[in-house]
Specification:
The chain has helices spanning 41-45, 148-153, and strands at 2-11, 19-24, 30-32, 55-60, 74-78, 83-84, 87-88, 98-102, 108-116, 120-124, 133-143. By secondary structure, it is mainly beta. The protein is elongated, with a radius of gyration of 20 Å. The mean pLDDT is 90.
């Protein structure tokens, strides 16, 4: 089990200005089961040899993180796609609003409305951090052996556990 405090900055594609995305303090650290596959593989790889009290600083390219922006994941949808019980609630269809959509096979996709026209809505189903370069810096707060139960369940129990 690894506990981290860190700050995450990111730059979007074509930008040079880093903006803070997330800050995790020592009193509410990120606690995770190392090697369980719950985090980005390259995130874990950068922490592999760290011990309690070690600082870290590393950069993940879009390909090491959430991928490049896929233009095919930006989709124009007719208003009927947003129909619930035969009616479309247009108050939901606002720029920047996040919605979960379901395809014909029942798969769920989270998307953000990036355009509203007279003919329909444009949604972006890329990961919110697609195309971003991520800059992590922080401190390893604690490293301990995982319990058998934690290993069986693939996540942390107790303080800091089941943290989403």
């Amino acid at each position: 089990m690894v506990s981290l405090s860190y700050t995450l900055h990111a730059t979007a594609a074509g930008e040079t200005t880093k903006k803070e995305v997330e800050s995790v303090s020592a009193d509410r650290p990120l606690v995770f089961l190392f090697g369980s596959g719950n985090l980005l593989p390259d995130f874990e790889a950068n922490l592999a040899d760290k011990k309690q009290g070690d600082g870290f600083q590393f950069t993940l390219t879009p390909n090491q993180a959430y991928g490049e922006v896929d233009e095919e994941s930006i989709v124009d949808l007719p208003f009927e796609a947003f129909s619930v019980d035969g009616a479309v609630d247009k108050t939901m269809l606002v720029l920047g609003h996040s919605l979960t959509m379901t395809d014909h096979e029942g798969h769920r996709f989270d998307g953000v409305i990036v355009g509203v026209e007279d003919t329909g809505v444009t949604m972006d189903f890329n990961h919110p951090m697609a195309g971003m370069t991520l800059y992590f810096s922080g401190l390893v707060e604690e490293v301990r052996e995982a319990s058998a139960e934690e290993l069986a369940h693939g996540h942390v129990h107790g303080p800091g556990g089941h943290h989403h």
